[in-house]
Amino acid sequence: MTIKTELTEMLGIDYPVIMAPMFLVSNVAMVNEARKAGITGAIPALNYRTDADFRAALEELRKAGDKPFGINLIVNKSNYRLKEQLQTCVDFKVDFIITSLGNPAGVIDACKPHGMKVFCDVTEETYAEKVTKLGADALIAVNNRAGGHAGKLPPETLIPLLKNHSDLPVISAGGVGDGQGLHEMLTLGACGISMGSPFIASSEAPVTEAYKEACVTYGADDIVMTDKLSGTPCTVINTPYVREIGTNQSWLESVLNKNRTLKKYAKMLTFYKGMKSLEKAAFGATYKTMWCAGPSIEHVREVRPVKEIVGALISEYDQVVKAHAG
């Protein structure tokens, strides 16, 4: 079966699902398997330390076939490599770009002449109206069930709200890990979903087995928000280590982040230290584990190949559709 929506028509895929770009987790192998399974996937440009590594990955993705793939770009001032990353994306004619945390105007202007789609992360209607005027191709509706930097509104509120303030297709991001959830988002008016956390527990993910098993063992109730990683609230699994250190910034970090002069540098330092902590936890078996994930790990029962995760999702969706029809 195939599922036809604005997203599948726009990208030429079988099912309206984007394997969400996940910092440190997403890689070429995962995206290629997603493409083979009838969906698409995106990788954060920041997963590559150098432009040479980034170009090598894009070349590998291009050689793997003509199915679409995307790249996530952080478009605020903290990403000093944005100009270089954007140019590389243009050079390889990346099929779609997902923009996060800033003004996407420059990205949209650079991509449009090359037929590259630009999807923008949004959490509320005002920003949706802005990126619509800038010429974005779709909205990624980041709701309060998303992994990483979550939004504030539930999808039941956010999706209709965005559709009332923009005529762009809306892709729901957050909380979906099974076919029932996919059906609910499409019923709400979304043209597809961006799903990340269940794919952490995939055979192709490059992270430790401990990280994958944590996604199997823990559930939605074990996800907590912390501002220790980037200075902005971010979702992590509430491991014993997280419970030990707490989820709030220290008084010194808090004071520095409120000082007008020092705030910029304090946030940069917090972000750098936080990303280093995530990297160590993702790739090293240590007690100090801070694993980023969202509530959709509730649906993870075992570590499986990407193709099986996608197959189960679509099979469950088909069953839900048949149940509603009957």
From TrEMBL:
InterPro entries attached to this UniProt entry: Aldolase_TIM, NMO
Swiss-Prot/TrEMBL keywords: Flavoprotein, FMN, Monooxygenase, Oxidoreductase
GO MF terms held by the record: nitronate monooxygenase activity
Pfam families attached to this UniProt entry: NMO
Family annotation (CDD domains): NPD_like (cd04730)
Coiled-coil annotated residue ranges, if any: none
Family statement drawn from the similarity comment of this UniProt entry: Belongs to the nitronate monooxygenase family. NMO class I subfamily.
Name listed for the protein in its UniProt record: Nitronate monooxygenase
Organism, scientific name: Fulvivirga sedimenti
